[in-house]
Design brief:
This protein is mostly helical. It has one domain (3-163). The chain has seven helices and no strands.
């Protein structure tokens, strides 16, 4: 599998789900921030909490599949512009995912407890995607690779000098 096998069209639904879930979380935050929630507010919050839990579950599953595809991909066959575009798209998804995490952290623990497991998995996946995007960015900059090799050779001691 090459970088070109992972098209933007295939990635967009995943990142759109992140955005949709973020919007749902914002609505819950808005309703839950009232001093004394009315019956109407509570009736709006409860279904949204379960909707968000379902959305997070779907999101975690689709991101798991996406991560597996990234780990199996051969990015050496892709052009630098394709890899750069892919990194940019992943970075956008990571930023939106972090916004979602920040939004849900505004809620009380009474609400967040319903999302604990998928939120933990989602946070780990976001960090993994961030790492992939960073690696792809480094791949796009040929000078950086040479700097990393140079730095690594300075950190690893020469075997001949350590044997003396």
């Amino acid at each position: 599998m090459s970088a070109s096998d992972l098209t933007i069209d295939q990635l967009m639904p995943n990142f759109s789900r992140i955005q949709e879930t973020r919007e749902e979380a914002k609505r819950v935050v808005r309703y839950s921030c009232t001093q004394t929630p009315s019956v109407s507010d509570v009736l709006n919050i409860v279904p949204m909490v379960f909707t968000i839990r379902i959305s997070l579950g779907k999101l975690v599953r689709s991101q798991s599949t996406l991560l597996q595809r990234f780990m199996a991909a051969d990015f050496t066959r892709g052009s630098q512009s394709d890899i750069g575009e892919l990194a940019e798209l992943i970075e956008h998804g990571v930023a939106t995912g972090r916004d979602l995490l920040a939004e849900t952290n505004k809620l009380g623990s009474e609400i967040r407890i319903w999302w604990r497991k998928p939120m933990r998995e989602f946070a780990q996946q976001i960090e993994h995607l961030d790492s992939i995007a960073e690696s792809l960015r480094l791949e796009c900059e040929p000078g950086v690779t040479m700097l990393l090799v140079s730095a690594a050779s300075r950190v690893v001691p020469d075997r001949r000098s350590s044997q003396r």
